[in-house]
Amino acid sequence: MTDKARILIVEDENAIRTGLVDVFVYHGYDVDYAEHGEEGLSKALSGLFDLILLDVMLPGIDGFEICDRIRAQDRQQAVIMLTAKTSDEDIVRGLTLGADDYVSKPFSVTQLVLRVQAVLRRTGIGEATDREIKLQNGLLVDTENLSAGDEIVFTRREMDVLQYLYSQAERPVPREELLVKVWGYASHMEIETRTVDIHIAKLRRKIEHNPSNPECIVTVRGAGYRLMVATESNTEK
Question: Does the pLDDT at position 227 exceed 50?
Fold first, then answer.
């Protein structure tokens, strides 16, 4: 038995893959790797890893399909995608498919290690949160089963966002606070990421009647995002 966090690195470029394996072994992780998409998918679906570091461009099955297949089986598996620096579409697509975060190539090894540590860090959010959250539009969210209604399903990270916004429902929450409390980034880290905004957009597409005019997750200009939940007055209407 080992208490080390297990990381799977799916990367076809030998120099990058070897370097990443060495770095994460040095930092105390139990590391395995895959060199191509089929091998990566097989290992990723094994359920043996705490986090999967997944390159987008892979021979055979690409990282997008692997991420999609992971999410179809396990909505709680931690996934960080490695994307080309200039490919904004890759970033949006990866997060839309359910990746917890992304890191653009070329990347700082130090920053990558910090991002991995952040995703793996247990924040404890949601432990004291209600089993159900009733939103202002009447939608009832089941926080334990990561679902709402008969058709809406959430990833673990999406639910973490909802639960934290719910715990702070009396005020707007800045995106920087969400990065610290939900993603586990240290408050001093200067991270340029669209992760929060894309997760909010994903949630709005799932829970809002009209995502372009949201009534449940509203943007408070200059202050952040606020979750609007059902109250006794609007429940009786």
Answer: yes
Task: Go through the domains of the chain in sequence order and give each one's CATH number.
Answer: 6-120 (3.40.50.2300), 132-235 (1.10.10.10)
Q: Per-residue pLDDT tens for 69-120?
A: 999 999 889 999 998 866 778 888 888 888 989 998 888 898 899 889 888 8
Q: Is 72 buried (19+), middle (13-18) or exposed (0-12) by CB count in 10 A?
A: exposed
Question: Which tokens in the block code for residue 167?
Answer: 């715990």
Contact assessment for residue 131 and residue 138, using Cβ atoms and an 8 Å cutoff? no
What are the start-end ranges of the H helices in 10-124?
A: 14-26, 37-44, 63-73, 88-96, 109-120
Measured CA to CA, the distance from residue 136 to residue 209 in angstroms comes to 11
Determine if the pTM surpasses 0.90: no
Please identify which residue in the block is written with the tokens 């038995």: 1
